[in-house]
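Same chain as my last thread, 653 residues:
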Amino acid sequence: LSLSFSIIMQETRTKTTRMRTMRTTTQYCCYRLCFFVVLALCNIATLRPVVGDEYDHKYASGDQIKLWVNKVGPYNNPQETYNYYELPFCKAEPKEGANKKPVHKWGGLGEILEGNELILSNVEFKFRQDLPKRAMCSTGKLTEKEVEKFSNAVRNHYWYEFYMDELPIWGFVGEYVDPNANDDDDDEDEEDSSSGSSSKKSNNNGSSNYSGDEKVYVYTHRSFDIGYNEDRIIQVNLTAERPKALKTGEKLDFTYSVNWEPTKTKFTQRFERYLDYNFFEHQIHWFSIFNSFMMVIFLAGLVSMILMRTLRNDYAKYAREEDDLDSMERDVNEESGWKLVHGDVFRPPKMLPVLAALIGTGTQLALLSVMVIGVTIAGLLFEQRGAITTSFIVCYALTSFISGYVAGGFNARNEGKNWIRTMLLTATLFPGCVFSIAFLLNAIAIYYHSLAAAPFGTMVVLALMWAFVSFPLVLFGTVIGRNWNGVPNNPCRVKTIPRPIPEKAWYCSPGVIGVVGGLLPFGSIFIETYFVFTSIWNYKVYYVYGFFLLVFMILMIVTLCVTVVGTYFLLNAENYHWHWTSFISAASTAFYVYVYSIYYFIFKTKMTGFFQTCFYFGYTAMFCLGLGLMCGAVGYFGANAFVRRIYRNIKCD
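reply #2:
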């Protein structure tokens, strides 16, 4: 009985616990169900009556369209840009119940580095609904300082940039009239802003003092003409009108109007109106490609002649039978040129870790450039703000294995012992130089309160990408390269005692060969350099990346051929220091590009001021640094293949 009673009590206790657990579980499920029901009701209550989305670019009639203000700056200085509200423009008030804090639209890493800061304007636009002239906002009574800001902006041809549905819109702040200036001296640069905006021309004599009858005007009305195709926005034109003279103590009432017009242009073609076909597809562009091809054919023929005619006779002397002692003795007595240095030509170069790091980084940049150009051609990245910059930075971090692999293998093949130093130089040399230049430019931009200043968070992201992505890949690549690709395979053994280098003519010295070697490669890209510089510094959208890829390949071929010829002349002068000479000879192309940039700055632009000058030459220095490393690496590989080819068939012993 006791045992039965115990069993019954245990079962009762178990059932009670189970019921409590089921009750608790049921209550928990009920609570969760109630929570999700309340949450769903809240979401339904807060749903907007519109379904427009600027990310898929599809709208229904009456959907709200967002207008974003971006930046403002002097027209002649493309990089000198400021926040739109740095000028005393008024701000449209948000609707009742909306958040009154400024709404920002942050893009990718490249968008921030390119100096973009989109802020919601709170101006009302509705899809396919015309709006007559209405008030946008109104400034308070202008103080003397605010008048001076507007006056300085107008006299320096300040422009501003808006965005609507990812389409850029441009306009000028105002105009000023100076009776002492000639009407024929209108600034022609404003014609370049005709795509997306139209405004009256104004004179710019650079004077900071007003004449007696001079008046400064600010455009206070903005007329938006928006073209649409079914449910998509195709184009936006802005016309700045109704100039009002600036006076201290008076208000500026800004108004706007909206006119919607149907268009047959397809959505996929809406960015074509920003492309200058007449400029980029001019006949001179095609002639430059043809000229570069002719240069490639000439240099390829020259290299072939050296390999097939000149070297064939030299090989014949070394290939004679050993019993022809008289002829061999006569040839040895007359022997000169590249054949005499076969015991020193594969001697490791000086500063081996530095050269290994430069060649590894140059190889990475060359492959990276081809990759980014290909992605741009396939994906039309030029239509997206900062997409090309973001792609380059991310791809650079992900391809760092290549630089480490090439540098590690090169260092090991040349009997380099300190592979850790090689790895550290490969990981830090190019990023360190670029970061140093960027740090100086960023300090200048911060001092000027410009949007070109990179935020601290962006700098942290870049540092983390280098520390946790790029650096480990370089380390891994160096280890793999020195173990898998580090076995010396020289066709000739290296003598113990270095051979003295005889004195030769001045034009056969490594310095002259190094300086002259970049002339022909620069000549092959001279025209394309002009187009690239114009797209960067003169508001042209560069889109002919097929041309760019073709010119890039021509540059690499010309660089390789020129380096082979220069190396042959150097070896014929019985100088076996060809490693650094071949690299510098090819890298000197960047020097000529930088010299050309000075000419372009003086004669082809109207840039002024310390800020823009620093950014122009700083950005150009970064570009030329990368170009020099790419050309140097390609030139070295060409010279290395040539040297191994010509010494492979001679009897070195």
